[in-house]
């Protein structure tokens, strides 16, 4: 059962073998080891914080590694292989539901909507959600935020994802795009830049945004163990200060300027694809403009998880969310 992944998956060899996939690190200052759940244009403000020197301005040396999946990211955090995780808030709830003695605390929100888009293989005629009824829909992993936000949206549109269509969700995240490209599914749920790449290649068309349809969520958040935060309050504050500076920079700059800043992290992706991906996320308000995770967003997350059958009990926002660092970062910037 997927809820047990983080409690029992402490494979030190796996954690230690994770390749460094970032461009940060190697400088002077207080070292902070950050694990991102995947490498994604969805996380543009994080790369801006590194490339524009916002972390260095705060006296931090951020060592970024890609931890490839929510389960591995949380394993790395709980086993102290990383100090801070960038991952979906649902993972902190799963840890809390297991009765963790050292819970994981959300302290800085990065993205505030789902980052996936609905792509249709057949682009003839005007799209309507009813087209999904009776179709083959290539979705995401059960229990993960993309799949839960997708199901939440389908239910809002009057579509039962269990009975009204054939839902495929047994394909590894890294293989979903290639499965669709090889002919699996009439519809697929994709992140950028893959959606833009497929559009450019004529393999389909983006017809809807799950981010727009599912509303504001604490979709991707910086989090750390309660014990780490307690011992490193000054570091966490400086980290959040840098995050807020980056968020403000992203909010006030064009998609082209943001793309140029983050291109070192996407060397195998064409610039025009990075630009179109950033533009799409900016236009739908995906990038949070401050690190505060508010109660309305949190309750929306709980509703999404509850509908998916992944919530044992509603966890009050103040239980595993600490907005004090985000609030101080905003005050300090005034």
From TrEMBL:
Its main location: periplasm. Gene3D superfamilies: Periplasmic binding protein-like II. Residues 1-21 form the signal peptide. Keywords: Signal. GO terms for cellular component: periplasmic space. It holds the Pfam family NMT1_2. It is found in: Periplasm. Belongs to the bacterial solute-binding protein SsuA/TauA family. This is NitT/TauT family transport system substrate-binding protein.
